Amino acid sequence: MQLVVPSLTLLPLVLNIAHVLVSGQVLEKSRSVWVEQGLVRGKIYNIDGRHIQIFRGIPYAEPPLGNLRFAKPVKKARWHQELSAVEYGPPCIQFMDFHRYDKFSADNMRRQSEDCLYLNVFSPYDHEDESKTFPIIVWIHGGSFLAGSADTGIDMELSFLNTKIGDKIEGNYGIWDQVMALQWIQSNIKQFGGDPSRVTLMGESAGGAACSLLALSPKTEGLAQQAIIMSGSVTAGWAIHRHGTPSWSLENLVSYLKCEKTITGAEYAADVVGDEHTPDELAQKKCNYQNEIVPCLGDDQTSSQQLSCIRKSLNFSSSLFRKALAFELGVSKMVVDGDLVPLSGAELVRQYARIPIMTGVARKEWAHKKPQFYNLHRKSSLTAEEAGESVFRIVEGSFHDTSPVKLSNSTLHLVANASFVRYIDDPSNTYETSRVVSALQTMEADIEFVAPCQREIDGYIYNNVTVYAYSFDYIPKSPIYEEEKKTFSLFGHTPVTITRKDQTLQDRKLEAFHGLDHAFIFSKGYSSNFEIRPFTTDDENLAKILTNMITNFAKNGDPSTRRFTWPMFSGNKTVEHISINLPPKIIQGELHWPQPKFWNVEADLISRHIAAGDFDTSSDPDADLTNEERVQLSAYRRAWWALWLLVAVLAIVIWGIVIYAVVSKGTSPRNKPYDNIVITR
């Protein structure tokens, strides 16, 4: 099989070699093939007795420079000499430094460039029959649409592709890059042994959301036949912008470039600058950490003039500037453009779902978030008010993004109160920090991953499209070590490697978290700097099960293995998904039920029908209610009117008694004080 990633990697179906590092490859010979643009030369390796051909750094679009900046990609022109595809192309400009000290890709990350639209192809090679073709997996990396590249992992029989990081200013350009890469695959992948009629999209996190969109967009029809969507969904609030002005809009970016707005408040400055930059280096920066201010941005310019200026003159060479922008503006989201992204949220899925998918989430996506993420690390216990404030911040920051309209604070507080009761409240009225943080992790994961995944599943089921759903629940018995680089003035600002064991919250077991499944597909860690040590026999067995499920789905459209039958998720019979664990097992009901019901039904109902002013009162507010909800609402209304009627009757009776008492007293003979007075003349 082949796999492709935007940053794209193509991988003819041999995912079970995923744990073989490049250092274990034996070079045998070179091989050249013809593509639309010309001749390209790669290498053939012997990996565990299998011949694998590897082509790195094949350009699929013109460099997005000059007038091609912030524009749809342009197909790569022909080249007239043999192209050497033996080295990775440069990664795209990174807006976060997730992979700065990456074990596998740190060296290549230093080559960041806007000239980055390349793909890599890894596929089986049979010298006796070069006409053999294999299914293709197109791998789309994650990274919040702000970071990542095709080489942030180990080599295997895949194809990875790079796309521009960020979809803004304001036209989904990174996603358009992926569309062009898929078109290139259709035209050329057969030359590498790939079958263009068996293309499986596969992505995780932001890559999962992009994969989710590509499986639905009318612009990609025929470019892929199925999709594997891991911990990401186009229905998530962080994936597609829904209301207000996008933070990465042209107007907003220009205001920062001209220093009309200042990047990063004091609370972010330390994170942006870090310890690796000396005061002298910072003193040389212009406003907002820029190396130089864009000279052609003036006053009273039209948006087209501003865009033309930015295309020609914007300098992205300052990593501090890029990182500060990311801290200030947040996750770069896709936007509804009526073209590539015709709709947002569940409406997009219900209208355009067409190809089979395998999709799921980790048991507790944000289980590795530390108390520092919630600014609670300095407290051993909280008050109910402090816990409630943390809940509100998540509702305001995560749930609000899923709404098609801007919600009032009163509505958000109402949703937060309901969320507090569901996740935090406790009869003992004690709020230990570890318990609250654990609940916040679950709540945030439910909003951002679990509920969106279930929404997407529901949309596919509505269209009678095949869905295989899972929860990744396996947690290794060995410690998970996190390695990072820190700089200290004591060592002259030289990076020092720090390794620490991933710690769990007090009295709580670690649960499968966001991206942990990578350890069992691509490497032995959550990322190249997270590692499970030692990687046990159980870990190896789980890796075999998971990669077999993925490859079987890519080959046959069914992830079942010889020993385990994976049932389809169907709305017409008992709802089932599977737990990926040792051993895997079938689970009745929706993913992580009942949490998706709360966010997709109850919280949504509150935000649409209870918050005054947040919906169109000219329409029937009860139109979307179920029969059971209508009956309950009708009963509440009858009880309400009965209560008011009782109050009115009691008021009339009381007033009657008061009036009668007053009149009776006024007509009594005892109340005539002058009856005993006799007047004589």
UniProtKB/TrEMBL annotation:
Keyword Cell division included in the entry's annotation: no
Residues in the signal sequence: 1-24
Keywords: Hydrolase, Membrane, Serine esterase, Signal, Transmembrane, Transmembrane helix
Entry EC no(s): 3.1.1.-
Keyword Kinase annotated: no
Bilayer-spanning residue ranges: 639-663
GO MF term set: carboxylic ester hydrolase activity
Record family assignment: Belongs to the type-B carboxylesterase/lipase family. Belongs to the 'GDXG' lipolytic enzyme family.
Protein name according to UniProt: Carboxylic ester hydrolase
Organism: Nippostrongylus brasiliensis (Rat hookworm)
